Structures are given as C-alpha cells and as structure tokens.
Amino acid sequence: MNILIVDDSKMNIRIAEDALNEFNVKGTIFSSLSGEEAIDFVENQPVDLILLDIVMPGITGIDFLSLANERGLLNKAKVIMLTTVDDLEILKKCFELGATDYIHKPFNKIEFVVRVKAALSEAESEKNLKRALELLENQNAELRRINKALKDTQAYVIAKEKMTAIGSLINGLTQEIDVPLTNLEQIIETCNKNSTKFERIEEYDQYAKMNGEITNVRKIINALKELTSENKQEQFTYAKLSELVEEVLMLLGSELKKVTKITKSYQDVGLVYCNVNSFKQSLMHIIVNAIYAMRDVDESEILIKTLDVEGASLLIIEDNGEGLSSEALSNIFDPFFTTKPRQHFMGLGLSVVHDIIVNKHGGSVNVDCLDGKTSVSISMNRKK
C-alpha cells in the first residue's frame, strides 16, 4: 500500500512518518511539501492513502482535491485531512471533494495510527473486491465464450447430422429412381431415332417434351447428389454466383411455387472462391426463411441480385414478409434462436449461414429490415 503525506511542514511529515513506523503500519511512505508537488506525484504514482494538510501556500488541500478530481487522479484513494481548522464548512467541502476522514493537529499517535490503519484496511478491502469483480467478470466472459462455442458446435453437429441424414435419404431415393429413369431415357432415345415413322408432328413434339422433362429431372437429381456429397464437403473451387443461385432455385422449385413473384438482377461479379456444397446450403436456408416470412403475404416477392462492390461480390436476397423486430435482428445469428414455432423449427438456419459464410469462407453476412422488407446480404471474396 502506498501512503502519501502532504504537508508544508517537514516537522509534521516527520512526526507522521515516525508514528507510522513505530506502530508498524504496512505500506510504502512518500511525502510532498506542497500541493503542486503532490499533484505531480499522484499523476505518476498510484496512491492508496493520502494524508493531506488543508492549509498550505499555493495549492491548498481543497485545491488539491479539486484538481485531482478534475484530472481523475484520486482513483478511489482514501484521503484523511490533517488540519488545525475547525470550520465545519471547510471540512464539509473536503468531504464533498472526496475526503474520507480528518484528524486534528497536533494529533494523538494512537488515534492517528488507528484511523490510518482503518483507512488502509478499507482501501485494501475495496481493492480485493475490485479484483474479485474483475476475476468474476473474466470468468463470466470465458463462460459466455465457452457457452457460445458449445452452442456453435452443437448447431454444427446437428446441421451436419441433418445433412448426412438427408444425404443418405437422397442417395437411396436416387438409386431407386436411376433405373426407371435410365429405362425411360433409352425409350426416348429409341423413339427419337425412329421419329420419321411418326404420323403426326404432335407425336414427335410430345416425345421431345418428355425428353426435356427427363433431362430436367436428371439435373435435379444430380444437383441433390452434389449438394449432399460427403466427398465435396471440404473442397473449395471458383464458381459463378448467379449459377449457384439458379441451382438452388431449381432445387427449391416446389417451395417457390408459394411465391407470387421472383425478381432476379445479376451483374457480372466474377468468380467467387467457395465450397460449392456448403455455400448452396446457406443460400437454401436464406431463401426458405424468406418463403416462410411471406406465408401470410398476398403478393409475396423475392428479389435476388448480385452487385460488384469495392472489389467484392455482393449477393442480396430480399423478401417483403412480416419483417423482424430489433430484438430478433440482434439475436438473428445466435444458435437455436428462431422466430418460428419451437415445436417445428430449431433455429439453426442463419446460425449455420453465419458459420458457413463468415467462419468457413471469410466473407460477411448481414440482415437488415427496412419498410417491412427483410434483406440478407452476403459479401464474398472473388477470384483475383
């Protein structure tokens, strides 16, 4: 503990020092012969207790307290006034400026030491309390960090297991579909080769249409296989943003039938470096959320656009759904937070999106709500 004695009398300083040493008061003792010197001292040295004379030439004890408060120098130091003054108004002013006690000069050694020890004990208790509070806050911060990491990990595991389960289901279904689909393709090919035997052009058109529909089915199946492929979960490559969006829209075709209007505006934003599978998963989460948000809107609309912004590729997906509250916006990326019924949804969507875009791709994702329209913007680094 640091003790500073401030008095314009060397004799008074010596008496105070002798008393503190005689009664083994623990602490390092410093002294100043003026208020100016004391101000310089506390600006450069932490002090726990100041024994301060009131009446001094130049900067008085009251002046010292005023300057120290203005400059934030006391830092919760205890201040005991050493004084011959009996003016209650002066003493009141000292207490208003931060003094905690006062002792009349000439003082009784025992009374002096008892009050000094009490002030030092209080200062030590406050220091210990401050350290305990700081330790508690650090522990709480660490617990919050660990809790968030656990939630993120849990969210990732659940999402991973979900995609694995979907992948297994899709693989099983596509294997079941492959055989009859291949047979149909062979039949269509045979019919095409014999198209000259068709009696009417309408018959040929029907076969051509069937061929086109089967090709579309094959595209959807291949896209689903690619989306859930374990072999491509960690592969990064360069891809065109608009093409990734179009593939996702194709996969969500049945869901998008619920949307009145889909407006697309694609600028040439170059190629983005991404893991195609996980990036498309994030887009699916965003678009499905948008569809859900517009479930009660008569004229629902989704706007999708790509922009070139300061060397980065920006994708914006906007809906005219019910919008989000400020509370929802502040928690939108937290794992398991959801604005949907808990019995049906787990709240993993945008948490997974944030993990994929920010943590996995080094991009950024933001959600804004203005005039009832919710906008999700994704910024990605592109090929240089």
Automatic annotation (TrEMBL):
The keyword Nucleotide-binding applies. Residues 122-156 form a coiled coil. The modification 4-aspartylphosphate is found at D53. It catalyses: ATP + protein L-histidine = ADP + protein N-phospho-L-histidine. It is an enzyme of class 2 (transferase). Keywords: ATP-binding, Coiled coil, Kinase, Nucleotide-binding, Phosphoprotein, Transferase, Two-component regulatory system. It holds the Pfam family Response_reg. Its EC number is 2.7.13.3. This is Stage 0 sporulation protein A homolog.
